[in-house]
Each structure stands twice: as structure tokens, then as C-alpha cells.
Amino acid sequence: MTKEELKALGLTDEQVSKITEDYGKNYVSKSQFNEKNEALKNAEKEKGELTKQIEGLKKNNDSNADLKKQIEAMQEAAKAMETEHATQLAQMKLDAAVEHSLTVAKAKNIKAARALLDLKDAKPDEKGEVIGLSDKIKELQKSDAYLFESNDGQKKEVGGVHPGAGSDNNGTAAKLTVQQQFERALGI
């Protein structure tokens, strides 16, 4: 109530001033009440929104656990693939080193010679050479020499017909013309 309303009720100025002093201590004005009421309504709205967000986060955290499991599985698969790749790369280096060594040793058939080599524990060193491979190849050259070209430097002559060479030992067939050679062959 305002001071005028209190005076209209028949109160004295002294009583009106005491009542108005009491307003500030024990009572809140309507504008302050409305402000506090609006603030409370806003706080309740925010509380509702936060509750919804928390529930959403709980749902997402459940799927996050699934995602974490998937990520861990993918990381394990990546490690397995990396290990497999390293193994394949080491095998390729070993194969290349063995093939090179057999080529240098003049193997006629690298695949056959490799099949006879014992390469269970073979591993390439820093230079890419297989440890103990040269000894194994030397043993194979002794035991299965037919797999390697001979080192004596002699070229073996293959028997059979040699074009342009005559059938006579004296070399007369080489001097004959083609027609004469046909006639001779046919016995004419």
C-alpha cells in the first residue's frame, strides 16, 4: 500500500512512516517479486533442458561404449595387418635374396633349386643377404649338380642335325647347290 492509501485509512504520519520502513525489511515490492518469479521460471526451464541433455548424453554414452569397442577392435585389426604386412615384406626380401643368390650361382631352374634348399630358419641380415645361404647353395651344387650350369667353361655340343652342315664328313655337301642337295637326297 502506498502512503496515501494508509493515510486514507486514518493512520497518522508517524504510523505510516513506521509501516513503510517495515516494508523494506519484511516485505518485497511487486516488481522485485515479479523479477524473482521470472528468474525462478527461467531456472526451472533450464533445469528441464539440462535434464533432457543429460538423458541424451546417457544414451550417447551407451553408444560411445560401443564406438570405443569398435575403435579398439579396429586398432587391433590395424596392428594385425601391420604385423602381417611386416611378415610379408620380410618374406619378399628373403625370396629376393635367395633368388639373387641362386642366379649368381647359375641355377638352371631357380624354382627347383629353391625347393631343395632348407630355408626354415633363414633370415636376411642388414645387407639383405641370407645368413648361411651360400653354404647351403654350395652343398646343393655338390649334391644336385644338374641344377646348375657347369663352371668348367666348356660349351657342350648338342648332337643332331646342324643346318648348313653337310652330311658328308669331307664337307662336299656344303659346297653343293640347293638343287644338287635335293637330287642327292632323293637319289636321282
TrEMBL record:
It comes from Megasphaera lornae. This is Phage minor structural protein GP20. Residues 33-91 form a coiled coil. The lineage of its organism: Bacteria, Bacillati, Bacillota, Negativicutes, Veillonellales. Pfam families: Phage_scaffold. InterPro entries: SCAF. Keywords: Coiled coil. Residues 151-174 are annotated as: Disordered.
